[in-house]
Amino acid sequence: MKPHRPRKRFGQHFLHDGNVIDRIVAAIAPVRDDVIIEIEPGEGVLTAPLLESGARVIAVELDRDLASTLPRRLGAPDNLEVIQADI
User: Fold this and answer.
1) Which one of 15, 25, 27, 46 is at 20 to 30 Å from 54 when CA atoms are compared?
2) Using the 8-state DSSP alphabet, how is residue 34 labeled?
3) What is the pLDDT of residues 46-57, one digit of tens each?
4) All residues at 6 or more sequence positions from 85 whose CB lies less than 8 Å from its CB, including other chains
């Protein structure tokens, strides 16, 4: 799947630094049965490790293109719910 081009009108900036992602996930320390609401998951680089913990992730994404492709990008896991909305 090709990368999404950030849209200026949404002020999109995507997280790519693996060290930062690891530190955020470590700070959250997600465990199975946690419910995490992720605001603007973008391409899902933070969403993926949260899902791997077994936590349920409710991802709220404004960009309809990103919202529609996120489940497919992440392998359509059962513990992911994507809501296309402004938050």
Assistant:
1) 15
2) -
3) 999 999 999 999
4) 60, 61, 62
Asked if 59 and 81 touch (Cβ cutoff 8 Å), the reply is yes
Structure tokens at 25: 């996930």
- What does the angle CA 29 – CA 73 – CA 40 come to, to the nearest 5 degrees? 60
**pTM assigned to the model:** 0.82
Distance CA 79, CA 40 (A): 17
- Whole-number Å distance between alpha carbons of 84 and 87: 10
Return the closest-CA partner of residue 31 out of 6, 10, 57, 8. 57
- Confirm if 60 and 81 have CB atoms less than 8 A apart: no
For residue 65, what are the contacts with CB-CB under 8 A and spacing of at least 6?
A: 4
Structure tokens, 56 = 């349920």
